[in-house]
Request: fold
Amino acid sequence: MRTLPLLLAAAFALIASPAAAQPWTGKPGDVILKDFHFASGESLPALKMHYETLGTPHRGKDGAIDNAVMVLHGTGGSGRQFVSPQFADGLYGPGAPLDLAKFFVILPDNLGHGESAKPSDGLKMAFPKYDYADMVEAQRRMLVEGLGVKSLQLILGTSMGCMHAFVWGEAHPGFAKRLAPFACQPIPIAGLNRAWRKLAIDGIMADPAWNQGNYTAEPEQGLRTAASLLLVAGANPLAVQAQYPTRALAETYAAEAFARTIANRDANDLIYQLDSSRTYDPSAALEKITVPVLWINSSDDFINPPGYGVTGPAAGRMPRARFILIEGTAETRGHGTHTWAKFWKDDLAKLMAEVP
Reply:
């Protein structure tokens, strides 16, 4: 099947105007990780990790690559989203925070996503039940074994990638000299965040056409239920109201946004993607993260609302963390603000200027 298009990333940016042609061209590659063991006890003899790179690796006096940056996508996305104009134009050009004349930028398709190994490749629901720890380990092995990268100047992660950044900071302290987690919380996926994910999974499984994952055609009704929940979770109500102020405009927006969200979706892949957060919980060991951290959330983020009382105490436990809450306006993108560099690129530039 074709590469999975953006899932939550698409749903979370639905109010955007059609993107211009993408001027940034990455160099694609694959790494085959042999004998990959999962936290569940399952294993695969070979696991493919796909990636794209931008810029050129630089080697220091010790011969090691010393200018690598890794950018991690959200649930249902792929590395390709980070060559879109709203992200790349403000970050990769001359003098920008991730100037490609200085940095070697690595854009993985995470385990279960894009062109990396996933259930729809053939194993369907027999694919190992991966979680975030497995996804981070696949990223690490891709870097070390495939690309020869043993340290990073930065991990920037959005949504799911934001959570992966916290996992990285605790599981491999200092591997990345800076962390930029955007749009998440360092607490278990519970409450409404888990509820809407579980409802989307149950919606797919309740469709008789799903057939325990052994379908020959996508279970359309189940996918429609899941896509509807994704739309609601990802939107910025203020922006949608401002841009679609009449019933007719709102219904047209909903129809078009829904079509983009459900297009080319694989039901089993989506189940795995939504469920992979089930074991995530970095809350007990945040003190291990001693590198500079730029943590950004948005006040109009349905998935990570600001009223939980989590961010202040959590940021205080990381000695070099800076937390920023972007105020929601008719211009922000709800949860998807994480992919619009104009809202936070100046803060990222300050992070990159910090001495690690």
Notes: Residues 185 and 304 are 7 Å apart (CA to CA). The first strand starts at residue 27 and ends at 37. The two ends are 42 Å apart (CA to CA).
